[in-house]
Write a structure and sequence with these properties.
Blueprint (H helix, E strand, L loop, with lengths): L1 E9 L9 E6 L2 H12 L3 E6 L16 E13 L3 E19 L4 E7 L11 H20 L4 H8 L4 H11 L4 H9 L3 H32 L5 H16 L4 H14 L4 H17 L5 H14 L12 H11 L4 H17 L6 E5 L6 H12 L3 E5 L7 H4 L12 H9 L5 E5 L6 E2 L2 E2 H9 L7 E2 L6 E2 L5 E6 L7 H5 L1 E5 L5 H19 L7 E3 L1 H11 L6 H19 L6 E3 L1 H8 L14 E2 L1 E8 L2 E13 L4 E4 L4 H16 L10 H4 E6 L13 H13 L1 E3 L3 E3 L2 E2 L5 E2 L4 H11 L3 E5 L3 H4 L4 H4 L3 E5 L2 H8 E5 L3
Parallel strand pairs: 1-3, 7-14, 7-15, 8-9, 9-14, 16-17, 19-24, 21-22, 24-27, 27-28
Antiparallel strand pairs: 1-6, 2-5, 3-4, 4-5, 5-6, 10-11, 12-13, 18-23, 19-20, 20-22, 23-29, 25-26
Length: 773
């Protein structure tokens, strides 16, 4: 017989004739098929997907043979789920497809007759054979419900018996489909007997495995029993054993490029691993150690490029300015290539944050075609972070140097030791001392990592370090490095860096193209002068990114198609400039002098203030000053007192007045040997009531005899003065040679006066006429 019916595709749920079953449905196509069946005669064609994981199957994904069923009950559950109670009626075969959307409608043939009749007594013999096999199966398995077993054994209808067994025994989906597709009852019974026999054989093998396990272990040692059971199962399935794993390690060892000492060590540990097996916790420790040793690139190298012209081109493309830095790096690379020696000094790029130290190291790796790896040493205080842990400790691992080499898989990478000045020490060891062996060319050929237990050759590694403050690096470590200063950028350099690199980088990062955002030159300069105060360009890049994001938002919301960034647009997007007010402080005042200071983050201006008031000769110094600056203030007072007659100061002035010296921003610690002339000038101005020129700044230390001593960090100090709008700078005469090395744009717009003693300082700094009292 043939009939057109709605079809429901099942996933691993089989409905056989003469059985009642329930299942849940959630797919919209399946729910429509059920609804149509309920509206008609409640008949539906149920068949299975070939692959149960397919979410939206087509006709080609379904078996042709299924079950014609009648829906007894439909219950709607939450979350659009429908629960169905259905009764299987006949085996049915799909002979045609009527519709595939919005539901499957198919033509099915059903009610097949037996194709091969039974001989006399054959039907009864088949029933008894199937029941005996099932009963034996139920006894062996021991987990089947006895009521269900009794119900099945009471069946006398052969066809019903086979379908009940196919429903309740956990055969594979393929086996159940084979039973369902077999239209001939005789062949179906034979297939059922074969499946029951296979299941019995599987359970017998499983029982034998369990007997082997129980024979080898104590009944009270549950953990050991489980381990042995896993071992026997692995043997039965042919999975990897300890011997196989050890053999795999030995195969890797034969291919490993390493010294005889290293290979002998690894071979010895493989032997120990093979001897102790997998039953002890030490096996996992040994396995990890062997895998680590095999991963270390003992003799594996990459081929470096020695093309100096290419290196120079890459450095110029990646970085604007920094001519002396590039020249020194090229000299270093040339000497290393020509001599073939690896004992050259370690480079240390020193300078404020944001000046491109890390990116320079990346460019060197790119220029030399070396693998690049970065180690951040900021906050590292444990010596074992560098040298590794002894492998006897729980959770032991090699140090960062070895881990880095494992990641790059070659022994001659460029390794950047970032923030080397931030590494510290505590009760767990001194990190800097551990780095001595790493960075010393005389020692790192035999670097000892505690975890490896054999020397590792680091002489092929090109180490480059970065630091912000050299004073924080221990002297022995600093002695092993060659310092290359990456100094602060001038506003002109910042403009070129922004225009050439940062604008493009932030434009691409925020999904914009050249037509959608265009920067005017004066907008970039306005952003640099009024919105940033830094030695590098990191804050500048953030500000450019902030503007770019706002443009992206406007274009995405279709407020604009393209935006040209002008000074007005910058102010609209970022608000009022935070640094314009500082220029108002450049007026002449009494007792206030602009000093210049060097900090690890670049140059800075310090406004030193002095007040004189009636009192008893007390001198107060505030502003979170260090010992050196406090001594500078005492030297300033001593010098002025010794010159009181020259400056027409009454002899009893210091007994009847208190002097208060203050440096604002008291929460910020300040120290350094360059504030002497600034303090002296401020104190003298406050005492004599003479104004100090507001557009003037100074730097230099003073002796109690009035001599001006040289200072360091002059470039950063001059750039800080330019940022504030200073016109004249007083510099120690001894620093004249340093000025000659600076690019003219550093000193452009500044009148630099070289002073030898305080007489010249006072002459340049103080206004001629005192204020009227």
């Amino acid at each position: 017989m043939k009939k057109t019916l709605p079809m429901l595709a099942l996933r691993g749920k089989y409905v056989f004739p003469n059985t009642v079953i329930h299942f849940d449905v959630s797919r919209s196509k399946s729910i429509r098929a059920i609804e149509e069946a309920m509206e008609q005669d409640q008949l539906i064609f149920l068949n299975n997907q070939m692959d149960p994981t397919v979410e939206d199957p087509g006709i080609i994904d379904l078996y042709q043979v299924g079950t014609l069923a009648k829906i007894k009950q439909m219950v709607k559950l939450p979350q659009n789920i429908v629960r169905i109670f259905a009764e299987g009626l006949f085996r049915a075969e799909m002979t045609g497809v009527v519709d595939e959307e919005p539901l499957f409608r198919v033509e099915v043939a059903y009610n097949h007759v037996e194709q091969e009749p039974f001989a006399p007594y054959e039907r009864e013999a088949m029933i008894r054979s199937i029941k005996e096999s099932f009963e034996h199966y139920a006894e062996t398995w021991g987990k089947m419900d006895q009521n269900l077993v009794s119900y099945i054994l009471m069946q006398q209808d052969l066809e019903l018996l086979v379908d009940q067994l196919a429903t309740h025994i956990p055969f594979s989906l393929e086996d159940k489909q084979r039973i369902l597709e077999e239209m001939d009852l005789k062949a179906r019974c034979e297939a059922m007997l074969a499946l029951l026999g296979e299941e019995l054989e599987v359970m017998q093998i499983r029982g034998e495995i369990q007997k082997k396990v129980r024979a080898n272990v104590d009944k009270n040692q549950k953990e050991y029993m489980l381990r042995e059971e896993m071992k026997v199962i692995r043997e039965e399935l042919g999975e990897t054993s300890v011997e196989d794993e050890a053999q795999e390690f030995l195969d890797q060892l034969r291919k490993l490029k390493a010294s005889k000492e290293v290979k002998d060590k690894i071979k010895k540990e493989i032997g120990r691993f093979q001897a102790i097996g997998m039953s002890t916790p030490e096996s996992s420790v040994l396995r990890t150690y062997i895998e680590t040793m095999l991963d270390v690139p003992w003799e594996r190298r990459s081929r470096d490029s020695q093309d100096l012209d290419r290196a120079e081109k890459i450095l110029n493309e990646d970085h604007y300015g920094l001519e002396k830095v590039k020249e020194r790096i090229l000299e270093y690379l040339a000497a290393r290539a020509m001599s073939g020696k690896k004992d050259a000094a370690i480079l240390c790029l020193f300078g404020p944050p944001g000046t491109g130290k890390t990116s320079i190291a990346k460019s060197i790796a790119k220029a030399t075609e070396k693998e690049y790896i970065r180690l951040s040493l900021g906050g590292v205080r444990d010596e074992s972070e560098i040298r590794g842990h002894r492998k006897t400790y729980v959770g032991a691992m090699p140090g960062r140097i070895v881990e880095a080499l494992r990641r790059v898989k070659v022994r001659n990478p460029l390794m950047l030791l970032d923030e080397i000045d931030k590494a510290g020490k505590d009760q767990r060891g001194d990190t800097a001392s551990a780095l001595l062996e790493v960075l010393d060319p005389e020692q790192n050929e035999h670097f000892q990592d505690h975890y490896l237990e054999v020397p590792l050759n680091l002489s092929d590694v090109l180490f480059i370090a970065t630091a912000n403050d050299l004073s924080l690096i221990p002297r022995p470590l600093l002695d092993r490095m060659e310092i290359i200063e990456v100094s602060s950028y001038s506003e002109n350099e910042k403009y070129h860096i922004a225009e050439k690199y940062l604008v493009k980088k932030q434009r691409e990062a925020n999904g914009l193209n050249e037509q959608q955002i265009q920067w005017k030159d004066d907008a970039i300069k306005f952003l640099i002068s009024s919105y940033t105060r830094e030695a590098g360009v990191r804050d500048l890049e953030r500000k450019i990114g902030q503007v770019s994001r706002k443009v992206t938002k406007d274009i995405f919301q279709k407020k604009h198609r393209k935006v040209t960034i002008t000074k007005k647009k910058v102010q609209d997007y970022l608000g009022n400039p935070p640094y314009e007010w500082e220029k108002e402080s450049l007026r002449d005042q009494i007792g206030i002098v602009h000093g210049l200071a060097w900090t690890p983050v670049g140059g800075a201006t310090l406004k030193i203030e002095v007040n004189v008031m009636p009192g008893k000769g007390r001198i107060q110094v505030t502003g979170s000053l260090g010992d050196v600056m406090k001594e500078s203030s005492q030297a300033a007072i001593s010098y002025i007192r010794s010159q009181s007659r020259k400056y027409k100061i009454k002899s009893d002035f210091f007994e009847k007045h208190d002097i208060h010296i203050h440096v604002p921003e008291g929460a910020v610690p300040k120290d350094g040997p360059s504030a002497g002339i600034t303090m002296t000038t401020a104190v003298l101005s406050a005492i004599t009531k003479k104004k100090v020129h507001g557009d003037l700044a100074m730097t230099g230390e003073v002796t109690i005899r009035g001599e001006v001593l040289p200072i360091g960090g002059l470039k950063e100090k001059l750039l800080a003065a330019k940022r504030l709008g200073i016109r004249k700078v007083l510099v120690p005469k001894s620093n004249r040679k340093d000025i000659g090395e600076f690019h003219e744009e550093i000193t452009e717009g500044l009148e630099i006066v070289y002073v030898k003693d305080m007489n010249q300082v006072i002459k340049e700094a103080l206004a001629a006429e005192p204020e009227k009292r």
